[in-house]
Write a structure and sequence with these properties.
mainly alpha, elongated
């Protein structure tokens, strides 16, 4: 099932989404560069994602997420950002480690945990003290 897509597949979806947002068009050579793997590895991963209906069949060199793929990629990116924010700003983990750990944790935690983090971080943001510019 789509829920069972493994960690590397989810990371590919996230990278594809990031490239799409930054460059507008996604080429496998750019995916390979960012993931740090060969073009052959990217081709293999893309064919798995294609079989799962998460990536459109590529007739040219462009990689395009399906509607399901885009939804999944956005969900993973959201989980990543929440976890990173929590690790860094609440627990005080260094930015580089927060980024690295969020990348690993995002694939295994429950939706319940993510939902609790959303509530917690929304409350923390509302309760945040005024920024320095606002203090007398």
């Amino acid at each position: 099932s789509m829920r069972q897509i493994h960690e590397s597949g989810e990371n590919y979806l996230e990278v594809i989404l990031d490239i799409q947002r930054e460059l507008g068009v996604v080429r496998s050579v750019e995916i390979a560069r960012r993931v740090g793997v060969s073009r052959a590895s990217v081709s293999k991963a893309l064919s798995v994602l294609r079989d799962m209906g998460l990536v459109e069949p590529a007739y040219y060199s462009d990689v395009v997420l399906t509607e399901a793929g885009l939804a999944r990629a956005k969900e993973i990116r959201h989980r990543h950002d929440l976890l990173c924010h929590y690790l860094r700003d609440v627990l005080g983990v260094s930015p580089a480690v927060a980024e690295h750990d969020a990348c690993r944790i995002e694939h295994v935690v429950s939706n319940e945990l993510i939902a609790r983090l959303e509530v917690l971080l929304a409350e923390a943001d509302r309760a945040a003290p005024p920024t320095k510019e606002q203090t007398p």
